[in-house]
Structure formats: C-alpha cells, structure tokens
Design brief:
two-stranded parallel sheet, mainly alpha, globular, three-stranded parallel sheet
Length: 500
Amino acid sequence: MNASAPVARRWLFADQLGPHFLDTDDQPVLLVQSRRAFARRRFHRQKAHLVLSALRHRAAELADRCEFRAVDRYTDAAGDRALTVCHPTTRGALALVQRLPGVQVLPARGFVTGMADFAAWADGRGRLLMEDHYRIARRRQGVLMDGDEPAGGRWNFDADNREPPPKPRRGRSGPPTLGVPEPWWPQEDEIDEQVRRDLDRWERDGDVRFVGRDGPRRFAATRDEALQALEHFVAHRLAAFGRYEDAMLADDAWMAHSLLSAPLNLGLLDPLEVVHRVEDAYRGGQAPIAAAEAVVRQILGWRDYVWHLYWYLGPDYPAGNGLRARRGLPDWFAELDADAVQARCLSGVLADLRDHGWVHHIPRLMVLGNFALQQGWDPAELTDWFHRCFVDGYEWVMVANVVGMSQFADGGRITTKPYAAGGAYINRMSDYCGPCVYRPTVRVGEQACPFTAGYWNFLHRHRGELSGNHRMAQPLRGLDRLADLDALLDQERRRGTDPP
C-alpha cells in the first residue's frame, strides 16, 4: 500500500487563524508577518497589537508545524514553492496569491453562504436588500426555524430591539451603565509584551506610525480566548443584548454587546458555531427570541451579506459617490482628537474609539457616519479611516457598511434611504445630550446642535437627489416649514470643517 501524498503547506493570512481553515490536524502551515503592511497605512495602535498578537499566538500553538516568517513583503516568504491558501478576504491579497505560480487558491472559508449561491440570489435584482438574503440563509441553514416557520413567528424582531437606554435607578451611585456583567477580558502574556515592544521600536524607527492610544488588549487573540468570550457573552450578556442593541450610554461603551466581531474577523470563530450556540441558548431558555434573533441577524445576515457584496459588486463599487461628497476628513476627526470637540456625543464616541479601537454599530452609523454624511466627506476616504481605526475593520467589512449603508453613496443599491438623523434621535437613544453645550432641538445660534443643523443642511443640499425617494418625502416637506432655513444654511457654511 502506497503512503499517502503529503498534505500541502497551508498559507494562513492573519484573518484565517481558526482550525476551520486547515484540512487536517497535522497540516503544515505558513504564517507571514509583514512590516510593510503597517508602514503603508496608519492603523490604530490597538488594532496592530491585536493582529500581531493573534498571528504570533497561532504560530506558538502550531509549534513545529508552523513556518513563521517575519519579512518586509509577503512574496519574500512565499517564493515559488507549492502552497495552498483559502480564498483571501480582499482583492489585493487575492491578486497577490494568484500571481504566485506555486499557490493554489481554495474556496473561501469563514463565511456561511457560498459565492455561487449568493450570486444566484443577487443576479437580476435591482436592489440587494439584506433582509431578503437573510431569510434565505435562515431557511438554508435551518437556524431559528420551527419547521418551515421562523422561531417566535417572525423573521425580524427589530421593532422590539430599539429601546432607549434605561433610566438610572434611584439610589444607585456612579455613572449610568446598562448594569450587565462586564465583557470577558483576556489576560496579556509574554507574546503581547513582545508585540508591544516591537510596535514601540517600529515607531521609534520612524517608518511606522499609528493613530489612537495603546492600551490593554480587550479582544480575543486565540481560539481558546475566543471560545471563552463567546461562552461569557451567552451566559451573562446575551439576554440583555437585543432590546438595548441600538442604545448608547456615555459611560458604558460596551453595553451588552458581544465583542465577538474582532475574533470572528480574525477567523478564530466560525460564524455558524456562534449562531448555533446562540440558538441553543434560546432553545434552552437562557435568552429571549428577540436577543437571539438579533445576534443571528448580525452574523448570518449582515456579516455574510457585506462579505458577498464586496465581491459581487466588484472593484468599482468602493469608488461610488452618488451624492458627490468631496470634502476631505478634517485632521481632528482623522486623528481621533476627541478633546477638540464640544458636541458630547461626537467627542465621547471619538474618545472611545481612540482608547479602545472599537465602538458598537450605532455610534459607528448614527454618530460617526451620520456626521460624515451630513458634512459631505469623501466616502472612499471615510471607508479607509474606518478600516484603519477599528480593531474589527477590514476592507471587505467597511466597503458596503460605509459606501452603501452609512454614506448612501451607491444611490440606494443596498438601503432604502440615507441614515441621516438630527439630534432628536441621539437624544432619544442615549444620555449624551443632557449635559451637552448644544441643545438637540435648536437649529440656529450658539446652542444649535451640530447634528440637527447638519441634518437640515444635508436635506437642502441633496433635495434633488432625494426627491424621488418616498421614504424621504416627509422630511423634505419639512424643509419648506423652516422659517430660519437661510440663517441655518449660512451658519453651516461658516462652520466649515471646524470641530463642532
């Protein structure tokens, strides 16, 4: 009997670190650390730390099975030898491996729906709505299904998951928080210490620069850590997640969110194992259906959806700019200079991002993205900023999230209306506005809320493009009732790019 042929060495990128990216338990692995990748762009310091920590921890786990190469360029490690690689997550990485003669590119892993299945669904559709894709994925995977019907009798419990933050309980001291146990936090080790020393040295050498502040590692960097974070979330935080997932508290950056997006996007967790664990919690009475469905929708629905849009819509989609937004990001925003900003919501969210490299989806969409949309900042530049500044940010993550959803720069290909809102929304969904120097109901004057004034200025500026959207008809009619519109427009012209 002939011995079986040796299994080809698997090249794992730094976002393919889980066991589901390997074919066997003894498959040899190539891991590559490229310093030039950090020299080309200014990433958040904590993102660089997390990625390098995860890469080096995986190399340590694999031990003799792993060839770990710290090089200037990826091609310095790959050479022309025989390697296999799972379909990379960006077009640039895919082009790189396709140029190398010895590399065999395998189908993508780490996502639920196959590329061919998504293309078959998307072909011929004028509007690619996530909800349509999500329901098909639920049926195909049998997730949260009772026979042919969705568990709980509804596909979507969004209407139950839009509660504002709870009011502080009487007699309770300290800043208002959601009151759930803190997330699971990792313990740093000698690998983290070495990563920190290397990043310090790279900065001193002058060829690598970061944004944001250094800080303790807050996100899982190993498979074991990721599983602990998942179990802690399910046991202690999942039940409170759904109803408050859209709420914000100035002194509670984490709320009841899972913090699993970073380990998911590093490939440490398979999305289906997270979805099944959450469904088990619902079936076992540990979490209400609205909470479980909210997590499933984020992972089986939205995460898979934006991955496929990145590939399906092609390389021209990131350049979409249907609202002709051309202004560059001002320095105070690009540098996360929260102290330059008086608007309490924007300052607080920038500070959380500066200090942690992460804020949850509502500050991203309705504070950072909303403000950028109102100000007419270039969507491509904003997409790059989100990619660099968030620990869970990758090119494939941010293109549809920013270009399509946040900035409505694709003209409504994936959303039905712009996510623009004034200060009333932030006031309803957070506790930011009370102590703020601006008032959410004021449009003009010293106390004019930048979001409220910016909202009406945005509608006026884009009235022509939005006039055919039936969901914008009522807000656009409101413009005609503003007696102070001319004063508001003059105020916003004078504001320019100054921090609000």
